[in-house]
Amino acid sequence: MSTRIKNSGVKKVVLAYSGGLDTSVILRWLQDEYQCEVVTFTADLGQGEEIEPARAKAEAMGINDIYIEDLREEFVRDYVFPMFRSNAIYEGTYLLGTSIARPLIAKRQIEIAKEVGADAVSHGATGKGNDQIRFELGYYGLNPDITVIAPWREWELNSRNKLIEYARKHQIQVSKDKEGEAPYSTDANLLHISYEGKVLEDPWQEPKESMFTRSISPEDAPDVPTIIEIDFEGGDPVAIDHIKLSPASLLARLNELGGANGIGRIDIVENRFVGMKSRGVYETPGGTILLPARRAVESITLDKGALHLKDELMPRYAELLYNGFWFSPEREMLQSAIDQSQKYVTGTVRIKLYKGNVIILGRKSPNSLYDADVVTFEEDTVYNQQDAEGFIKLNALRLRLAAKLKN
Hints:
By secondary structure, the chain is α/β, with parallel strands linked by helices. It is 40% helix and 19% strand.
């Protein structure tokens, strides 16, 4: 036991507890090393699996205060949808499925810590990853005086094999994958599921088909396309095929439709905030449909200047979320500007889903700025084509002056 742990003074800690291998080992380790009371918090963010077993595991390890909460609606309404209003994509490919879940978990941990009088919070993120930063920036952004325990930065269990050995020694259940092996390192919620580790650590190796859980392969997708319509109000989706759905139910339905048509798989090497490159595979069926659908409504309802400014701000917004700055003043400033832009983003998009592809078939809006009388190639009375001559000459003036110097 380290001197730091001996002198910690921590009496009660709220642990973000999934019931999986890592956090189950952490639960036992906190009890043994810190000799403190542990409160477990398990959030249902739409992982796609039962979370009640986490209660039984926590009870078996002597935990009295066990929080298990269904946060799916709050997650989609207050985190996923606001993020999607920005059209955020990190490094051109990643839809930020893991990143966007961390602020909500951190917020509830801090709230629970206040409720139960805990002086510390803990998480299962490794010392190499982004999640340690996301959790802890969230903690400190909400409670600057909280004590944070990050076991991966303290203990000597620095590999999956050592975790498994520790779990077996202390009779902690170790899950298996479809091949009877220790599973990939995954993170799942209603927006996505990620896979890391094992064969994926070699960026040249193709993932096994058996790994995927939320989508069929595009090759096995139906030969007949699925055509749907999504209604938007104020920038957020509200209905599929004109059937109103709650935020979580709508995203779940898009996941079903996308997964059944082989949509939403990406295999990327990304740049972590801590500086290293990491290979990950993601399934984000609903989000992969939602992004182009949103942009289709924006294309006819947003002014050119507003649309282009949003596109300029998006990479900055995406990087803030990826790096864990959800509760930062700059993210809140950007969010205010983005939300203001969505006032008239209301309309309907018609989409074809086919073998991994999301194809926009049509878009309409009561707030459309698209004017057929202006853009028509036929004769019109609203646009004087001769006006373009002066427009072009004014814009060409500096180019003509520069050209004279070159000649």
